[in-house]
Write a structure and sequence with these properties.
Aminopeptidase, 13 strands
């Protein structure tokens, strides 16, 4: 067994992968700015486990210099152990004081392991992993840093007594909610980015990204969205909040009917007079989804301490749990 350090997809493509090892997407290492890519290789030259490391541009966390471990996959526990120790050694060499993973550099990209699978099928844009991967992290000395969950609403017609008073008060403050039907969605991305960078600034492990990176990420999803499921909350000409939802295209990929949509993002500017806007947006999304022919809605990938849990808890039951891990790196 040996650990091989690489710096690009071109280098990685020269190494054959073991059967069953999930492949890296084309140019994934380069496009996501990984500082190093590590492979655990057997005597036959096959990659049995791999990961990428980031230490230059990582989120802030509690005074630490964060190193991120992402692009993780393994088909063997022993190779996984060697790979993770190699990752820890490299992050220490670059003065990192904590390793966080799985996280592809920052929380705008893929991060978290599924640690409570439940019985529902995987949904569009959801992380997926064998049950062994989080156990491999735990055996390497990682412990849970944060927990997340997704919740399923199977009754889109469900009433919420909180909506009317919230909606009335928001209307009194000049807030109006509309769908993005008839809009140029690419144009709206600039406004959505402006709200996101303010609304999420205090979120756990937040990292600001340039607008072009934000646009590039969302532009991949836009061909699949229904404008009726994008809600814009405006006060005059100012966008003060939005809800971004998308059909569960994983159902279509499996050859089934798409009867479920996902609430992917809800963002509200931190103004006191916008209290309750998230609740109103989620309720409106359920109404629009029902009108569009959907039967179910997944409130996707929420942090356990986020206000979204209060909103979701009224409508939906937990269907899946996820964990993000960390390990402090003593010198």
């Amino acid at each position: 067994m040996r650990i091989v350090a690489l710096h690009s997809n071109a280098e990685r493509e020269k190494l054959p992968a073991a059967p069953g090892l999930p492949p890296l997407a084309s140019n994934q290492i380069d496009d996501q700015g990984a500082d190093l890519h590590l492979c655990a290789v057997n005597q036959a030259g096959q990659v049995q486990a791999h990961c990428s490391l980031w230490w230059r541009a990582t989120p802030r966390f509690s005074g630490h210099r964060v190193g991120a471990i992402g692009h993780y996959a393994s088909v063997d526990d022993d190779f996984a152990a060697a790979l993770l120790e190699g990752a820890i050694s490299n992050l220490r060499l670059h003065a990192c004081t904590i390793a966080i993973g799985p996280m592809d550099g920052n929380t705008w990209r893929q991060y978290r392991f599924v640690t409570g699978a439940g019985t529902e099928r995987p949904f569009f844009l959801e992380p997926a992993n064998p049950r062994e991967w989080p156990l491999q992290f735990e055996r390497a000395g990682f412990t849970p840093l944060a927990n997340y969950y997704s919740a399923l609403n199977t009754n889109l017609a469900q009433k919420d007594d909180r909506i009317a008073p919230h909606a009335s008060r928001l209307a009194g403050h000049g807030v109006r909610i509309r769908t993005a039907a008839g809009e140029n969605l690419d144009t709206q991305l600039g406004r959505i980015y402006g709200v996101s960078r303010v609304a999420f600034a205090q979120n756990f492990l937040y990292t600001e990204v340039p607008e072009d990176s934000f646009r590039a990420q969302y532009s991949q999803i836009l061909p699949h969205v229904l404008p009726e499921l994008i809600l814009l909350a405006e006060r005059g000409l100012e966008l003060v909040g939005y809800l971004f939802a998308v059909p569960d295209l994983a159902q279509a990929a499996r050859g089934g009917a798409v009867d479920t949509f996902l609430v992917k993002t809800v963002a509200i500017l931190p103004h006191p007079d916008l209290r309750g806007l998230g609740t109103v947006l989620v309720s409106r999304a359920h109404q629009e989804g029902l009108r569009a022919g959907f039967r179910r809605c997944i409130h996707a990938l929420m942090h356990e301490n986020n206000v979204s849990r209060n909103i979701s808890g009224h409508y939906a039951a937990t269907m899946r749990r996820y964990t993000l891990y960390s390990r402090e790196l003593a010198s």
